[in-house]
Write a structure and sequence with these properties.
The chain is built from three helices and seven strands; from the N terminus they run ββαβββαβαβ. By secondary structure, the chain is of the alpha/beta class. Helix 3 links the parallel strand 6 and strand 7.
Length: 145
Protein backbone atom coordinates (compact mmCIF):
# COMPACT_ATOMS: atom_id res chain seq x y z
CA UNK A 1 0.00 0.00 0.00
CA UNK A 2 1.40 3.43 0.58
CA UNK A 3 4.56 4.29 2.40
CA UNK A 4 4.24 6.71 5.22
CA UNK A 5 6.16 9.91 5.20
CA UNK A 6 8.56 10.22 7.97
CA UNK A 7 7.84 13.06 10.17
CA UNK A 8 5.90 13.72 13.32
CA UNK A 9 2.18 13.29 12.83
CA UNK A 10 2.12 13.93 9.08
CA UNK A 11 -0.17 11.04 8.15
CA UNK A 12 0.12 11.52 4.33
CA UNK A 13 1.05 8.63 2.07
CA UNK A 14 3.31 8.76 -0.97
CA UNK A 15 1.84 7.34 -4.17
CA UNK A 16 4.07 5.42 -6.53
CA UNK A 17 4.61 6.88 -10.00
CA UNK A 18 4.26 4.12 -12.61
CA UNK A 19 4.64 6.40 -15.68
CA UNK A 20 7.53 5.67 -18.04
CA UNK A 21 9.94 8.47 -18.68
CA UNK A 22 9.76 8.87 -22.48
CA UNK A 23 12.24 11.73 -22.80
CA UNK A 24 15.27 9.50 -23.54
CA UNK A 25 13.21 7.53 -26.04
CA UNK A 26 12.17 10.72 -27.86
CA UNK A 27 15.77 11.94 -27.88
CA UNK A 28 16.99 8.70 -29.47
CA UNK A 29 14.21 8.78 -32.08
CA UNK A 30 15.08 12.35 -33.06
CA UNK A 31 18.76 11.46 -33.45
CA UNK A 32 17.85 8.46 -35.63
CA UNK A 33 15.53 10.63 -37.72
CA UNK A 34 18.33 13.11 -38.37
CA UNK A 35 20.76 10.30 -39.27
CA UNK A 36 18.32 8.80 -41.79
CA UNK A 37 17.50 12.21 -43.27
CA UNK A 38 21.20 12.83 -43.90
CA UNK A 39 21.97 9.30 -45.15
CA UNK A 40 18.96 8.87 -47.48
CA UNK A 41 20.16 11.19 -50.27
CA UNK A 42 23.54 9.44 -50.28
CA UNK A 43 21.91 6.06 -50.96
CA UNK A 44 20.32 7.03 -54.29
CA UNK A 45 21.49 5.30 -57.47
CA UNK A 46 21.66 7.11 -60.78
CA UNK A 47 20.73 5.32 -64.00
CA UNK A 48 21.57 6.73 -67.43
CA UNK A 49 18.45 6.88 -69.59
CA UNK A 50 18.21 7.58 -73.30
CA UNK A 51 15.02 9.64 -73.36
CA UNK A 52 13.63 11.51 -76.35
CA UNK A 53 13.50 15.31 -76.19
CA UNK A 54 10.53 16.84 -74.41
CA UNK A 55 9.39 18.69 -77.52
CA UNK A 56 9.88 17.14 -80.95
CA UNK A 57 11.96 19.11 -83.43
CA UNK A 58 9.81 21.31 -85.65
CA UNK A 59 9.63 20.78 -89.39
CA UNK A 60 10.63 17.14 -89.20
CA UNK A 61 8.03 14.42 -89.34
CA UNK A 62 8.69 11.44 -87.10
CA UNK A 63 9.51 8.30 -89.04
CA UNK A 64 7.32 5.26 -88.82
CA UNK A 65 9.04 2.78 -86.50
CA UNK A 66 10.24 -0.54 -87.87
CA UNK A 67 8.90 -3.59 -86.06
CA UNK A 68 10.63 -6.96 -86.32
CA UNK A 69 8.29 -9.78 -85.32
CA UNK A 70 9.47 -13.28 -84.47
CA UNK A 71 6.80 -15.96 -84.66
CA UNK A 72 6.83 -19.25 -82.79
CA UNK A 73 7.54 -21.12 -86.05
CA UNK A 74 10.82 -19.20 -86.36
CA UNK A 75 9.54 -16.92 -89.13
CA UNK A 76 10.80 -13.36 -89.03
CA UNK A 77 8.68 -10.48 -90.30
CA UNK A 78 9.47 -6.82 -90.83
CA UNK A 79 6.05 -5.20 -90.69
CA UNK A 80 4.08 -7.54 -93.00
CA UNK A 81 7.00 -8.69 -95.13
CA UNK A 82 8.68 -11.99 -94.34
CA UNK A 83 12.48 -12.11 -94.19
CA UNK A 84 15.24 -14.50 -93.16
CA UNK A 85 18.09 -14.13 -90.72
CA UNK A 86 20.56 -13.87 -93.61
CA UNK A 87 18.81 -10.85 -95.19
CA UNK A 88 17.54 -9.28 -91.99
CA UNK A 89 19.97 -6.32 -91.87
CA UNK A 90 19.41 -5.38 -95.53
CA UNK A 91 15.63 -5.69 -95.16
CA UNK A 92 15.66 -3.52 -92.03
CA UNK A 93 17.61 -0.82 -93.89
CA UNK A 94 15.15 -1.04 -96.79
CA UNK A 95 12.22 -0.73 -94.38
CA UNK A 96 13.87 2.33 -92.86
CA UNK A 97 13.97 3.92 -96.30
CA UNK A 98 17.70 3.53 -96.83
CA UNK A 99 18.35 0.67 -99.28
CA UNK A 100 22.06 1.51 -99.55
CA UNK A 101 22.57 0.42 -95.94
CA UNK A 102 24.56 3.50 -94.88
CA UNK A 103 23.43 5.28 -91.75
CA UNK A 104 20.39 3.10 -91.18
CA UNK A 105 22.05 1.59 -88.08
CA UNK A 106 21.48 4.86 -86.22
CA UNK A 107 17.70 4.43 -86.34
CA UNK A 108 15.80 2.64 -83.60
CA UNK A 109 14.13 -0.68 -84.43
CA UNK A 110 11.68 -2.61 -82.28
CA UNK A 111 11.71 -6.37 -81.76
CA UNK A 112 8.71 -8.30 -80.53
CA UNK A 113 8.33 -12.04 -80.20
CA UNK A 114 5.37 -14.25 -79.54
CA UNK A 115 5.39 -15.82 -76.07
CA UNK A 116 6.09 -19.31 -77.43
CA UNK A 117 9.27 -18.28 -79.31
CA UNK A 118 12.38 -20.16 -78.21
CA UNK A 119 15.09 -18.09 -76.59
CA UNK A 120 17.62 -19.29 -79.17
CA UNK A 121 15.57 -17.88 -82.05
CA UNK A 122 15.14 -14.56 -80.26
CA UNK A 123 18.84 -14.26 -79.45
CA UNK A 124 19.77 -15.18 -83.01
CA UNK A 125 17.85 -12.13 -84.26
CA UNK A 126 19.33 -9.90 -81.53
CA UNK A 127 22.88 -11.09 -82.24
CA UNK A 128 22.44 -10.58 -85.99
CA UNK A 129 21.17 -7.04 -85.45
CA UNK A 130 24.07 -6.26 -83.13
CA UNK A 131 26.63 -7.80 -85.53
CA UNK A 132 25.32 -5.52 -88.29
CA UNK A 133 25.59 -2.37 -86.16
CA UNK A 134 22.02 -1.98 -84.91
CA UNK A 135 22.54 -1.00 -81.29
CA UNK A 136 19.35 1.02 -80.76
CA UNK A 137 16.96 -1.88 -80.35
CA UNK A 138 13.74 -1.64 -78.38
CA UNK A 139 12.04 -4.72 -76.99
CA UNK A 140 8.25 -4.83 -77.00
CA UNK A 141 6.11 -6.74 -74.59
CA UNK A 142 2.41 -7.10 -75.20
CA UNK A 143 -0.02 -7.94 -72.42
CA UNK A 144 -1.55 -11.38 -72.66
CA UNK A 145 -5.23 -11.37 -71.82
Amino acid sequence: MGAKLSGPGNGKTIEQNADINVTPFVDIMLVLLIIFMVAAPLATVSIKLDLPPATPPTGEEPKEPVYITIQETGSIFIADQQTTIETLAADVCAALGNPTGRGCQEERVFVRAQPEVKYVAFMEVMNDLQANGFFKVGLLNEDIE
